[in-house]
Write a structure and sequence with these properties.
Radius of gyration: 21 Å
Strand content: 15-25%
Order of helices and strands: EHEHEEHHEHHEEH
Shape: globular
CATH superfamily: Potassium Channel Kv1.1, Chain A
């Protein structure tokens, strides 16, 4: 997949390793191994996960608060959050709905999900400040 001019996909390098693969006894004694590297792997995975979220493809969990909801991917939430990982491991439903605590507002949830999928967010100082507390920071710090 070519995303925004970046080259994606595996690319072989010429680094060789001794034949010590634990996967095949025969291979260990008679073959060299090459290191394969996927150029821009992290940025491509981030882009793909975000595209899947935007297209609602393969979503398998619903997050709800303040009478609103959004869909996400259990594997992404679990990878980024011990809080979500515990809830999802304890609830093996195919498509669970997680109702978040009342102190998380929907706009904060949207920021949190964007942060989880992209690894960064841009918010104004006003969006960070709610009732003298840093609402999004508190949400990220205590929940994620």
């Amino acid at each position: 997949m070519d995303t925004k001019g970046q080259t994606a996909g595996p690319a072989a390098t010429h680094t060789t390793y001794p034949a010590t693969s634990p996967y095949s006894k025969a291979a260990r004694s008679s073959h060299q191994y090459f290191s394969l590297r996927w150029n821009n792997y992290q940025s491509n995975m981030t882009s793909v996960f975000h595209e899947l979220l935007e297209s609602q493809s393969f979503v398998d969990v619903t997050l709800a608060c303040e009478y609103n909801s959004l869909k996400a991917h259990k594997v992404v939430l679990s990878a980024c959050s011990a809080y979500f990982q515990k809830i999802l491991l304890d609830n093996p439903c195919k498509h669970p709905t997680i109702i978040l605590p009342a102190d998380i507002c929907f706009s904060d949830l949207q920021f949190i999900i964007e942060f989880v999928y992209r690894g960064e967010i841009d918010v104004s100082e006003a969006e960070l400040q709610v009732s003298g507390e840093t609402s999004i920071y508190r949400g990220l710090g205590s929940r994620i």
